[in-house]
Amino acid sequence: MTVVCMIALVKAYPHRHLPVAFWTIGFLIFMGLATAIGGILGHGFLYTTGKMGKLPGWVCGIIALALYERGVMYRLKNILSETQFRRLLLINVVGLLIFIVLTLYYVHFQIPQYHAFYSLLLLVGSIELYLYRRFRNPGSLYILSAIGCAAMAGLAHISGINFGVWFQENDLSHIPMAGSIWLLYAGMAKSEFQAV
Predict the structure, then answer these.
(1) 129/16 Cα distance (integer angstroms)
(2) H helices then E strands: how many in the chain?
(3) Following DSSP, what letter does each residue of 86-135 receive, concatenated?
(4) Going residue by residue through the chain (196 aa), what tens digit of pLDDT does each one get?
(5) Is residue 195, in this structure, part of any structural domain at all?
């Protein structure tokens, strides 16, 4: 997943001057950090760090999705009033702060999972569905497909599938998660990192 983030980051970087690309790049950086930290510190050294070792990865993941939400919100900037746009950005910041505080307080993986549901399905999904229905925006289909991949990752995670000690449901869930990250990047790239 970290490698997928790095490849997408290299492809998105030349467009960094565009607001949508800027927030997408932030998403890729923090998601890459989340998966690297989570894999190394949270899983690799779990026997030493315990649950607290997973916390930095979870927080980076929440920040990553909040940055992506913001990029999606910037796709709406030309069709919203300044007040509507500022309200959306406020929702973004408030959601980010609430989920970080809850994660730090409870130190439980369900909080970042709830944030992913809130972020991808409720916020990003509803905006992209609107953009596709109204403008037939080509990037929206990629982003909606990414949400489907993320849902498959969640189902794989709770499936209990176990192919042995080296490939369990957690490992299986990371395959569609990597696909989801790529599709989230591709959706923005397909729309040329532009607002509608």
Answers:
(1) 25
(2) 9, 0
(3) HHHHHHHHHHHHHHHHHHHHH--THHHHHHHIIIIIIIIIHHHHHHHHHH
(4) 999 999 999 999 999 999 999 999 999 999 999 999 988 887 778 778 888 888 999 999 999 999 999 999 999 999 999 999 999 999 999 999 999 999 999 999 899 999 999 999 999 999 999 999 999 999 999 999 999 999 999 888 788 777 877 787 778 888 999 999 999 999 999 999 999 8
(5) no
The total number of structural domains that make up the chain = 1
Q: Could you tell me if residue 18 is left (phi over 0), alpha (psi between -120 and 50 degrees) or otherwise beta?
A: beta
Q: What do you get for the CA distance between the two ends of the chain, in Å?
A: 29
Neighbouring residues of 9: CB distance < 8 A, sequence distance ≥ 6? 25, 28, 29, 32
Residue 196 lies in a domain: no
Burial of 177 (0-12, 13-18, 19+ CB in 10 A): buried
Supply the range of the domain harboring residue 150: 2-190
The answer to whether the beta carbons of residues 57 and 42 sit under 8 Å apart is: yes
